Amino acid sequence: MSNEITAVGLDIGTSKVRCVIGEPSPDGKLNILGSGEADSKGLRRGVVTAAEAVAESIRKAVTEAERVSGVEIDTATVNLSGEHFRGENKVGVVAVAGVDKEITQDDVDRATDSASALPLQPGWEIVDRLPQEYIVDGQDGIIEPIGMTGSRLEARVHVVISPSAGRQNLVKAISRADLDVEQTILEPLAAAESTLTDDDREYGCVVLNIGAEITGLTVFSRGAVKHMAVFPFGSTHFTTDLAAGLRVSIPQANKIKHDYGCVASFLLSDDERMETIEIMPVGRTESRGLSKELLCDIMQPRAVELLQHIAREVRSTEARIPSGVIMTGGGALTRGICEIAEQIFDAPTRIGFLENEYFTGLMDGVQSPDWAVAAGLAQYSMRSQIRGHKYGGTSPVRAVTDWMRGIRDKFR
Ligand SMILES: Nc1ncnc2c1ncn2[C@@H]1O[C@H](COP(=O)(O)OP(=O)(O)OP(=O)(O)O)[C@@H](O)[C@H]1O
Ligand SMILES: [Mg+2]
Fold it and tell me: Is pLDDT above 90 for 412?
């Protein structure tokens, strides 16, 4: 079966487009065959603003991944991104229909539909409905209600809505690059997919995907998504702060951030505080020295401000997060961000690397938090194809098993 399936994750970000190609390994992991990355053009805060430029970036990343893997692709699972997503927890209640009161998929569908019957503004759509739990005759915490007996079925669902133009323009840009979209997955979910363990989800945790211009937040509790949000800020804020504060160009500010940036002054040794780096202010002909302490003084308050804003939102959900905060995206590579987040969230904090129990193969280039989304998308791609192959028949038993697998995947 393995060679019938080619799993492809395509992460179209504001700063980079990344593509991961893989196949199922015999032990159920995703065997990464190749990956490719290209600078991204034509997006603003995760949303397509110039389709041809985006298509060109996609072509470059895909060509590179195809070259490394030796596999040609024509379809991909893609991230859905943007700052306008809104997630709400909803409840739908229905009476179980059958005379024997055995819950069927139809009952579950009706309960989910009832939970997601939202008044939508024109041009908005529901992009995902994430089941949290089912309650049968008052018994809560049920994950697979089909086949259970009861009279009253309640579905708790996290419903995510967004303007539909974002998804439509994304699909158009991808088709310009001669690819079909296998499925679209919310970016924060894809970041969680590749980096969390089942325990993280079950005990409760927060995933922060800090990209260039947007930051995705997902709060997990009791194995399901309790809250999701996207914030219109990311690591580019540090770059623009440095450019303004030091009077340097954006590319130079970006390089300073990458090479020397730090957002936790307590990590700097006394010697390091005094060390200086040479910078070239715009319009000057002579460089000047900048101490690493001053660099940190510019970046740290911004990191604290952004993380405090997110922490307030997490607190408002009243979720318990004993598994802590997992940070993905390129912004998670900023020196000190994990340490500062640990203080602000008052929870254990770690960088989200690809979980070894889910991945194997050519992992060298992708074992980094900025590849979490592309790798998570490839995982989604693999699992949905495996379901299609195994349970593609028409028998009702298979259909139910397939549905249950789908539910389990959604809860994962
Ligand atoms: N080593 C590093 N130190 C500091 N910042 C870094 C480092 N590596 C990457 N970044 C920053 O991370 C950001 C890119 O992150 P990422 O690739 O996750 O974003 P993206 O997916 O392209 O954008 P978005 O998710 O906002 O659409 C850039 O602002 C980049 O400067
Ligand atoms: Mg991103």
Answer: no
